[in-house]
Amino acid sequence: MKPCPKCESPYGYSIENDMYACSECGYEWNPNEQNESEQKKIIDSNGNELKNGDSVIVIKNLPVKGAAKPIKAGTKVKNIRLNYESDHNIDCKIDEFGSMALKSEFVRKA
Question: pLDDT digit string (tens) for 2-12?
Answer without folding.
Answer: 888 888 888 88
